[in-house]
Design the sequence.
């Protein structure tokens, strides 16, 4: 049975899909954000769950004029709250090549004498220093995974702030960062501290290897 | 003439016969100079009767503009400000537009901070009014910043912009810029992400009530929380919060408020009742059409796209909201704005976006206010 979804439900599914796409395709040099929902329909699959068919427009957060179209399917599983929704997507066309920016960031971090440590990105006034922009973007990309894994039809997450980030030294070629982020869940309006360990390599993409929800006062 | 002992001061010296000369005549020499000119058949006309008077006038104007510059242009609309800075600026705005703007205190917050309204009025007695509020949720800093810019804009445009002038010639505007000052102070001192009031909840270590779930419209339903530790905690009873009660009392006492526009962030939406039920409001069609026009005019400025519709359809079910209460109490034109952005920065919107946000929101606000003016009820 098909129902036209309300704007609010379409918006939640779209945000989830966009986060997933961002996680799979993002890097410190490329973050994707939801620009618009062109079309949405909802299909109730008996005994399985609710499936949203979406046509989205995504934009490059570093270059707002650069957009791509994306079709996605989001299946929220009925009853099983511990199972993450299934997300499948197809991007039309090519994403901008960010090898140069990614490699520059990679080399910059690799050459640091002391492990990188930072906090409050953006700060209270919304400022992100240019040096911290890739760290911000990496968190944006990685948080797409956390949000996807923890979403239901009644949630819509956004990354509110990086409270703290610490680079973890590794003997292999990967970069590792331990983040404490604040997620904003729009329906409940809660600010949820979340710890996530993020691995990245220019050719290997972004990976969240460990993540855990923190108690509310953990970030203060 | 220059050889005369009358100390005349030539402003344009005589050059050749037939050409005029201008001279300043000190008062004691006035009679003598006149007699001299007349007896020698030199025609004259008085260009400035009293030079000192002109000088005094000019000095006064210069001093006034210097005072205005000190107040208005030293306030940086493109930065986020503290509570004290905003309250000081409000006094400056009143000083600079004394016949248009006044400040009213409508109560005190939980922690005894003053709750102030700016009243824009060109006179009359209890004219129909438009209510605007920003900052009910303290972490939504872009709203206070937009409020300050907008209040200044209203003051500037009266007498200049035909719409603003028409509105204020018949109606009053009441603008509460820091609707939740305790929360706002807390976002500066302790927790940038604080949303609620700072009232102590009996029997709980958690502080604060969501002031946008505390209104008596669908109060206490599942579109709010009964847990004091929750961001959408509705409070022990409707209007339990002093910040909310002050507005309720004001609007009820006024009796002629025709529109309530409550400004929040973020999501880029223009919303109207209901949030506490899915059934459309009786005026759904009119409100929807007006919202559509407003967001369209907003988009023209910088291309910023808003969605619009009822609260329940567009964002989520929410019980006990400001606009639902206003609507159910006879205020037909009740709207909620959710300003920039859609999540990239969220509550931490860069200050470089303050003026663009305020600038694009202005035509949308005007659309609503003009509609209210043109559709009296």
Sequence:
């Amino acid at each position: 049975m098909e129902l036209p979804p309300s704007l609010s439900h379409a918006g939640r599914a779209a945000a989830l899909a966009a986060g997933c796409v961002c996680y799979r395709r993002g890097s410190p040099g490329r973050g994707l954000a939801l620009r618009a929902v062109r079309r949405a329909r909802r299909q109730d699959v008996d005994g399985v769950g609710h499936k949203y068919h979406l046509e989205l427009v995504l934009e490059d957060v570093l270059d707002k004029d650069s957009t791509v179209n994306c079709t996605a399917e989001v299946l929220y599983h009925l009853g099983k709250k511990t199972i993450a929704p299934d997300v499948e997507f197809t991007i039309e066309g090519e994403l901008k090549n960010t090898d140069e920016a990614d490699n520059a960031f990679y080399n910059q971090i690799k050459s640091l004498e002391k492990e990188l440590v930072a906090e409050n990105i953006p700060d209270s006034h919304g400022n992100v220093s240019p040096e911290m922009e890739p760290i911000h973007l990496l968190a944006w990309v990685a948080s797409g995974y956390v949000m996807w894994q923890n979403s239901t039809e009644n949630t819509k997450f956004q990354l509110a702030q990086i409270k703290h980030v610490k680079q973890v030294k590794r003997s292999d070629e990967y970069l590792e960062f331990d983040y404490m982020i604040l997620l904003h869940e729009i329906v409940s309006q809660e600010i949820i501290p979340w710890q996530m360990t993020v691995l990245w390599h220019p050719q290997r993409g972004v990976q969240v290897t460990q993540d855990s929800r923190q108690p509310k006062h953990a970030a203060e | 003439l220059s050889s005369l002992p009358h100390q005349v001061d030539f402003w344009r010296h005589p050059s050749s016969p037939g050409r005029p000369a201008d001279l300043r005549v000190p008062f004691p020499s006035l009679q003598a100079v006149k007699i001299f000119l007349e007896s020698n058949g030199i025609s004259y006309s008085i260009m400035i009767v009293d030079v000192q008077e002109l000088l005094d006038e000019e000095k006064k104007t210069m001093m006034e503009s210097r005072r205005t510059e000190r107040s208005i242009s030293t306030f940086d609309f493109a930065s986020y400000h503290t509570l004290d800075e905003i309250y000081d600026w409000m006094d400056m705005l009143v000083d600079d537009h004394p016949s248009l703007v006044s400040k009213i205190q409508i109560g005190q917050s939980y922690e005894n901070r003053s709750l102030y309204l700016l009243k824009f009025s060109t006179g009359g007695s209890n004219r129909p009014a438009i209510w605007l509020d920003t900052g009910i949720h303290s972490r939504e800093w872009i709203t206070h910043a937009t409020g300050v810019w907008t209040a200044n804009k209203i003051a500037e445009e009266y007498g200049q912009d035909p719409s603003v002038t028409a509105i204020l010639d018949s109606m009053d505007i009441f603008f509460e810029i820091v609707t939740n000052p305790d929360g706002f102070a807390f976002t500066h001192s302790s927790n940038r992400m604080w949303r609620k009031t700072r009232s102590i909840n009996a029997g709980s270590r958690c502080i604060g009530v969501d002031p946008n779930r505390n209104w008596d419209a669908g109060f206490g339903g599942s579109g709010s929380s009964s847990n004091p530790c929750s961001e959408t905690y509705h409070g022990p009873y409707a209007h339990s919060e002093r910040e909310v009660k002050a507005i309720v009392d004001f609007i009820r006492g006024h009796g002629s408020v025709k529109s309530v526009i409550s400004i929040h962030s973020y999501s880029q939406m223009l919303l109207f009742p209901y949030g506490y039920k899915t059934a459309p409001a009786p005026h759904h069609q009119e409100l929807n059409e007006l919202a559509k026009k407003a967001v369209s005019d907003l988009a023209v400025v910088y291309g910023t796209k808003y969605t619009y519709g009822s609260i329940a359809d567009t964002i989520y079910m929410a019980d006990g909201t400001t606009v639902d209460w206003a609507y159910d109490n006879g205020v037909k034109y009740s709207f909620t704005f959710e300003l920039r952005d859609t999540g990239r920065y969220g509550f931490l919107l860069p200050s470089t976006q303050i003026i663009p946000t305020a600038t694009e929101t202005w035509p949308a606000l005007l659309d609503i206010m003009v509609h209210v003016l043109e559709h009296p009820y």
User: Anything to note?
Assistant: Chain B has two domains: 9-46, 71-374. The two ends of chain B are 75 Å apart (CA to CA). The mean pLDDT of chain B is 93.
